Amino acid sequence: xxxxxxxxxxxxxxxxxxxxxxxxxxxxxxxxxxxxxxxxxxxxxxxxxxxxxxxxxxxxxxxxxxxxxxxxxxxxxxxxxxxxxxxxxxxxxxxxxxxxxxxxxxxxxxxxxxxxxxxxxxxxxxxxxxxxxxxxxxxxxxxxxxxxxxxxxxxxxxxxxxxxxxxxxxxxxxxxxxxxxxxxxxxxxxxxxxxxxxxxxxxxxxxxxxxxxxxxxxxxxxxxxxxxxxxxxxxxxxxxxxxxxxxxxxxxxxxxxxxxxxxxxxxxxxxxxxxxxxxxxxxxxxxxxxxxxxxxxxxxxxxxxxxxxxxxxxxxxxxxxxxxxxxxxxxxxxxxxxxxxxxxxxxxxxxxxxxxxxxxxxxxxxxxxxxxxxxxxxxxxxxxxxxxxxxxxxxxxxxx
Length: 400
What we know:
Elements: H1 2-33, H2 53-61, E1 73-78, H3 92-104, E2 108-111, H4 125-145, E3 150-152, H5 156-159, H6 172-183, E4 192-198, E5 202-207, E6 210-214, H7 224-235, H8 237-240, E7 244-248, H9 271-280, E8 285-288, E9 295-299, E10 302-306, E11 327-333, E12 341-347, E13 362-365, E14 368-372, H10 382-392
Parallel strand pairs: 1-2, 2-3, 6-7, 7-8, 8-10
Antiparallel strand pairs: 1-11, 4-5, 5-6, 9-10, 9-14, 11-12, 13-14
């Protein structure tokens, strides 16, 4: 009897060990065959251990940095990186933004100009080249190393298009050296060009089903011959067959920041003409910089993303008591969404989310009203419309 019990015990034990071994084998097989999920595969945050140490440090310092749900395409939008004239230094928020890119895992970074601190006639060739070298160290090289395409537009501090009385460019040297930097194969921004004949001033490129146009809005006027190029490019099959069209330029169409940014010369001189062209060819969004103030808005059918600054000198919104802040926007595009775009914007000092619904419902810049992106003109109350009309007149207060 005792032998039978021992035999039964050994049989049961052997069976249990076999089951355990089989289970462990399957677990190991699954672990080797199933890759660890990352944010590029779903809307979960990336695994902290999978991102660079400097990114981990920033993320951990926030406690719980918000990770937005992904769309079909994700852009991270930055603007106005520069500091004082001739500077080769960058504010900490610039390095912070670049170091956070592995957390957000963008498909592309879009920059709305002022990457360096030019627009000063006394700057020498050596000084200008030193600025571009510093930009490369802080921004462009990390993007190349991370295989992140960089779509950008030229700002007034990069290569101003301002002209003198004779019609020549006042900052020709800066324009030549900016072109030299960007046309160096070592500085390839990694985008899929469609037309690069006048790169980096006027060019088009694409990513998946999105058509991008970058125009030279480093000054307030685009010459008539270039507007002809704009129309031709937007009418092209590459543009019209895309699911979305985005235009990027440094100066905005309408003013959103107070003070010296709310005047002629700090915005495009012919905003209604430009908006009519963009709407004619169903451009969805115009992304701009220069105002140093974040304000997501629209006028008529055109979405207007006034990008926040990550460099020096954030500015206050018009008629707003909100303190100026530096900002970065994660822009997710979902092709089957009615809104198409979703903005997730962070205060670059604190990395807290910026709720755009806490921003003014509309702004009355000197050249026309813009409405916050979730507000329609018919939503405005009678007293709100009256405020605009009293400041700007009836014509500039129509959001048609």
